[in-house]
Amino acid sequence: MNKKQLKRTIVIEKLTLNFLLKFLSPTNSLIVYISQILDKHVWRYQHLIYKNYKKKHSRKYAIKKSKAA
C-alpha cells in the first residue's frame, strides 16, 4: 500500500471504530480486532514517513571529503 491508500484506510477504520464503540463494549472481540488492524496500519504509515525522511536526509548531512586532499 502506498501512503495515500494507507491514510484513507486509517481514516475509514477510525470512523468505523469510533462508531462501533458507541454501541459495543471496548472488550468486544470485533472492536479488539479492528483496533489491532488499525494499529498495524498506523505503524505502517509512520514507517513509510520515516523511510522517506531517512532517504531525503541521509545524503544531505553526509560528511563531505575535502577537494584539496
Please outline what is shown here.
The protein is an all-alpha fold and 69 residues long. It contains two helices and no strands.
Inertia-based shape: rod-shaped
Strand content: under 5%
DSSP E strands, number: 0
Number of domains: 1
For the sheet with most strands, the description reads: none
> Which structural class do you get from the secondary structure elements?
mainly alpha
Distance between the termini: 46 Å
- In N-to-C order, the SSE pattern is HH
Question: Count the helices. How many?
Answer: 2
Helix content: over 70%
Roughly what is the average pLDDT, rounded to an integer? 89
Low-confidence stretches: none
Rg of Cα set: 20 Å
InterPro entries: Spo0E-like_sf
Protein name: Spo0E like sporulation regulatory protein
Organism: Clostridium disporicum
Question: What does this protein look like?
Answer:
The protein is mainly alpha-helical. It has one domain. It is built from two helices and no strands. Helix 1 (3-21) packs antiparallel against helix 2. The longest helix is centred in the middle third of the chain and has 32 residues, at 29-60. The model has no long low-confidence stretch (mean pLDDT 89).
